[in-house]
């Protein structure tokens, strides 16, 4: 996803851009993009600085840390970036600079790729332990059944499955 810096002027312009999962090529554990990433940005240049401000919208497919089912979650992240244009070609983008919101970029190159910023931003925002829902029951430690779907009948917490038949009878 490239922004043509030479088209940005002092007048604020609106940019709507889109990157496909293939273009972004995220390499994350247990998470994949479930949609394109849509960028809604405003762009403005003041002297040697280009200010980008807006949001990223996309869906991630995450794997639940308890039940290992995949589930989709929508995301809407703020993106804010200042690109300082410099004359010297020898300056390269500082991929891991202290400030994630500020980069140096040689003015002569014109096309600025946002991909690395976006990859970092998404990786930062993902939950360490994704849960398909807050009260996910996870998997039975004995038989591996997904306890969200149905109780498996294993003896794990005091109730004796041998009584289940009798209880069913008494419920009738
Ligand atoms: Zn779950
Ligand atoms: Zn079980």
Task: List the ligand species.
Answer: zinc ion
How large is the radius of gyration? 24 Å
Oligomer designation: single chain
Number of domains: 2
N to C succession of SSEs:
EEHEEEEEEHH
Number of strands: 8
What gap, in angstroms, lies between the N and C termini?
Answer: 64 Å
> From the helix content, strand content and strand pairing, which structural class follows?
mainly beta
Count of runs of 4 or more consecutive helical residues: 3
Name the beta content range: 35-45%
Unreliable stretches: none
Model description:
This protein is mainly beta. The protein has two domains: 2-136, no CATH class; 137-172, no CATH class. Helices cover 13% and strands 37% of the residues. The chain has helices at 21-24, 115-125, 164-171; strands at residues 2-4, 13-19, 31-33, 37-46, 49-63, 70-86, 102-106, 111-113. Strands 2, 3, 4, 5, 6 and 7 form a six-stranded mixed sheet that branches. Strands 1-8 form a two-stranded antiparallel sheet. β4 (37-46) and β5 form a beta hairpin. The radius of gyration is 24 Å and the shape is elongated. It starts with a strand and ends with a helix. The structure holds zinc ion (2 copies).
Please tag this protein with its features.
172 residues; mainly beta; six-stranded mixed β-sheet; binds zinc ion
